[in-house]
Amino acid sequence: MKKLTMMLLTLALAMTGAPAPAETAPGTNIDKALALIGTFASGDAELAASLLDEGYIQHNLSYGTGRDAFTGSVEYLASAPVKTTVDNIRAFEDGDYVFMQTVYNFAGAGEQVAFDIFRFENGLIAEHWDNLAFVAQANPSGHTQTDGTTKVEDLDKTEENRELVKNFLYDVMQGNNPGKTADYFDGDVYIQHNTSIADGVSGLGSALAAMAEQGIEMIYDKTHLILAQGNFVLAASEGTFAGEPTSFYDLWRVENGKIAEHWDVMETIADESTWQNRNGKF
């Protein structure tokens, strides 16, 4: 049984482009998270079940909670006439958490960019949060939602970079000290992957000014989770966009103590009457 499980795990990892684990080791948490999302493409519900804690908690409000609900989704996708595709772009590890950026196409419904967060407990995936948005055209500076560097660097600066982003969220995104905005950037150097905003702090300022003219506000009320590995930091925040309850997932790359690059997915939080689980978005 152990060898069979290892063979299935190796197959799933190969489908996601991740390196196969050695026979003598179960793989890292990143390997396991990649294997799990790979089951959406492979349809391997048995492998999915082997990676999930029995009490698996789901925060995607479109799905039921629990291990059986997840494996049921895998089986459903396996039966769909159009094959699901999974293309992982970035994957990071922070203690018991794995956070990743992936492009999915579920049963031919259209490509979606997602940030997934998995929490591990006793070597199994115990909890999951995510944000998804459909793939859009390149932004005004020609960047897509996923391009740019994937290299993890500065592992010794992980906590320093986490603190930088924490302070940036408080001062700038939550509007407590907007006068400090320039302190977080190297002049106007800022690579932007948001679908509507151009590069540079100036591009961000212009976009916010244009929204204000239209009466559109983007408000960050609370940050629930900040995860980091080296030069990459992901924050999951709650607020409103144009008056609608919104979940903000922002990934920043930090370079030399300054915020240098940004990717994001915004998702409107569904009305509670439509939720398929009671765990909440966060």
Structure characterization notes:
The protein has 282 residues and is of the alpha+beta class. The protein is built from 6 helices and 10 strands. A 5-stranded mixed beta sheet has the order 1-5-4-3-2. It has a 5-stranded mixed beta sheet with strand order 6-10-9-8-7, covered by helices on one side. α3 runs antiparallel to α4.
Short description:
The protein is α+β, with helices and mostly antiparallel strands and 282 residues long.
Salient structural properties:
single chain; 282 residues; 6 helices; globular; 5-stranded mixed β-sheet; alpha+beta
Strand arrangement within the widest β-sheet reads: 1-5-4-3-2
Low-confidence spans: 1-25
Distance between the termini: 36 Å
Helix content: 25-40%
* Biggest beta sheet summary: 5 strands, mixed
Strand pairing plus helix content: what structural class?
A: alpha+beta
Shape: globular
Rg over C-alpha atoms, rounded to the nearest angstrom: 19 Å
Number of helices: 6
Roughly what is the average pLDDT, rounded to an integer?
Answer: 92
Order of helices and strands: HHHEHEEEEHEHEEEE
The tally of beta strands, per DSSP, is: 10
Beta-strand residue fraction? 25-35%
Summarize the helices and strands and which ones pair or pack.
Layout: H1 2-16, H2 29-42, H3 45-51, E1 52-58, H4 67-79, E2 85-94, E3 97-105, E4 111-121, E5 124-134, H5 158-173, E6 191-192, H6 200-213, E7 218-229, E8 232-241, E9 244-255, E10 258-268
